[in-house]
Design goal:
Blueprint lengths: L7 E4 L5 H11 L6 H9 L4 H4 L6 E5 L5 E14 L2 E13 L7 H9 L6 E4 L7 H7 L1 E2 L4 E9 L2 H11 L5 H17 L10 E6 L5 H12 L5 E2 L3 H7 L1 H5 L3 E8 L2 E12 L5 E10 L7 H14 L4 E7 L5 H6 L2 E4 L6 E3 L3 H7 L18
Parallel strand pairs: 4-5, 12-13
Antiparallel strand pairs: 1-2, 2-3, 3-4, 3-9, 5-15, 6-15, 7-13, 7-14, 8-10, 10-11, 11-12
Helix pairs in contact: 6-7
Length: 368
């Protein structure tokens, strides 16, 4: 491969998929199939509106015509104070080591695109943290560098924790450690579920989510919200739904959908299997439905022999019940959630915490 010479920057096309996947496969732990990658764009509810002008990303080619860098650009739609905002969600910023000196050019192209009114990135890793701080702003609400953890299988969790700390004899010691953790957790409990609330599990999002979304927007006009109607939700979670990794739990009253949460099955680097709470929404004003949904999530995790239920983004007002119940904390290597907008009026509004109700539904954290 030719090195050192300035690569050529150009807009990516859908036909670039094979070479983009080849580049990502050399640097990322997982890649998308062609159908899944194309689905991010062609199945996107916004594509009929934006497809003719929306760039799917940008790539670098070296003088031999080899693809040596890329960044993806997935559109989504947000609502705020009666207005719609087209959001650009970056994904998979990768570049060959010998061309890293040009990496900021890719990021600059992404942030300078004229068609986006908002930029959201929720999967910033250690290698991209300094760049994210340079181009964007950390969300002002919540701790996006820490996980709250609820244990559902105590002995495997205790063993992994002891091994991570380098404690000799982690296997035999895991039994008393697990017992101690269980006893400590037995002193904590979730609030009781109101008898009028029924919690059920869905395989896919249905038409009730259209009415739910309309009411959510109507009752929370001053909150920045990514669109969550039936079509958008089924598109957003299409890849993990196909893989059987999504758990959709709904809370209803008198047969009406009043709240829901989405959880994602994950296997962590240390081998622990978890359900990550991606998104919780509620229309109730006086009753917190999260405890009822969380009880069902914990039961699901135990039935599926999963070790933990976790949530990233501690200190969010709507997630207080989770933070109070899940008393264990795991750090993330860097801050995950950044945003930017070229609109000065929107920028001023988003600088305060009251405009936000964020989750990992934002950005690309749960797209694939």
């Amino acid at each position: 491969m030719t090195t050192a010479l300035t690569p050529r920057l150009r807009t990516a096309s859908l036909q670039d998929y094979p070479r983009i996947r080849g580049l990502e496969a050399r640097h990322l732990p997982a890649t998308l199939s062609e159908a899944s990658w194309l689905g991010l764009f062609l199945d996107n509810p916004l594509w009929s509106r934006l497809g003719a002008s929306w760039p799917v990303g940008w790539v670098f080619e070296n003088t031999d015509g080899e693809l040596v860098g890329s960044i993806g650009n997935v559109p989504s739609l947000y609502r705020f104070r009666g207005e719609e905002y087209v959001c650009a969600n970056g994904r998979s910023w990768v570049i060959e080591p010998e061309y890293r000196a040009y990496a900021l050019m890719l990021m600059d192209e992404y942030y300078q695109q004229p068609g986006a009114q908002l930029f959201v990135n929720t999967t910033v890793g250690p290698d991209g943290a300094a760049t994210a701080d340079m181009f964007a702003t950390r969300i002002p609400l919540g701790d996006w560098q820490s996980y709250a953890i609820a244990i559902t299988r105590y002995r495997p969790f205790a063993r992994r924790a002891l091994e991570k700390k380098g404690v000799p004899g982690a296997a035999p010691l895991s039994l008393p450690a697990a017992a101690a953790l269980w006893c400590a957790d037995a002193l904590r409990s979730l609030p009781p579920v109101p008898p009028s609330v029924e919690v059920t599990r869905l395989e896919r999002f249905d038409a009730r989510f259209d009415a739910f979304w309309s009411e959510l927007v109507r009752t929370r006009p001053d909150t920045l919200l990514a669109v969550r109607d039936e079509r958008t939700l089924n598109w957003h979670y299409a890849e993990p739904l196909r893989a059987g990794q999504v758990r959709i739990l709904t809370a209803t009253r008198a047969g009406l959908l009043r709240g829901y949460c989405v959880l994602r099955l994950r296997t962590l680097p240390d081998g622990l299997r978890c359900l990550r709470l991606i998104d919780y929404r509620s229309l109730e004003q006086d009753v917190d439905l999260l405890p009822a949904l969380l009880r069902a999530a914990l039961r699901t995790a135990r039935q599926e022999n999963l070790h933990i239920v976790e949530h990233l983004g501690r200190g969010l007002p709507g997630m207080r019940a989770f933070d109070e119940f899940a008393r264990y904390r795991f750090p993330r290597q860097c801050w995950a959630y950044y945003y930017r907008t070229p609109d000065p009026v929107l920028a001023e509004a988003l600088s305060g915490v009251r405009a936000w109700d964020p989750s990992e539904y934002d950005g690309d954290a749960s797209l694939y």
